[in-house]
Design brief:
This protein has helices at residues 3-17, 20-43, 47-67, 76-96, 99-126; strands at residues 136-137, 140-141. By secondary structure, the chain is an all-alpha fold.
């Protein structure tokens, strides 16, 4: 096997075995990385290079929105509003090639990423091996952080 195939398998295995909290933090980490890369490309005037990063960022935000259970906690509806706003801004930043708009999205996402990392860490510390980490609502299993 070559390096690329091994890396792909490792990433696939990591995602497949990650807890819902870990998946959420991985998505936020990648979202910030995509925004950083897109912003850098836009500042260089390279809309073509920025496009795939912004499109991937849109895909991540769409996935976050699709898996958010707005009834799971009090702030979920507001978080859904943030996701909706981010999608609109990311599309606009991509069309316009606007690095400042991309940077504003990144600046909005970074504190959310830190908050989710902290929440995931707190769950990991307080959960016991015998304690279930998700709850079931209408036959659907929710992740530790209200997504799943």
């Amino acid at each position: 096997m070559n390096y690329a195939a091994l890396r792909t398998r490792y990433v696939d295995d990591t995602v497949a075995t990650a807890s819902p909290a870990k998946l959420l933090t991985m998505l936020y980490d990648r979202l910030v990385l995509d925004l950083q890369r897109a912003e850098a490309a836009q500042r260089e005037g390279n809309k073509v290079a920025a496009g795939p990063h912004l499109t991937h960022a849109q895909d991540i935000v769409s996935e976050l929105a699709a898996t958010l259970d707005v009834g799971a906690w009090d702030g979920a509806k507001q978080l859904m509003s943030v996701y909706t706003y981010l999608l609109t801004e990311l599309i606009g930043a991509n069309i316009a090639g606007d690095a400042d708009r991309t940077a504003a999205c990144r600046e909005m996402v970074e504190p959310l990423r830190e908050a989710w990392h902290q929440a995931a860490q707190e769950i990991a510390v307080t959960a016991t091996p015998l304690e279930p980490v998700g709850t079931t609502v209408t036959g659907r299993s929710l992740g530790d952080l209200g997504v799943g």
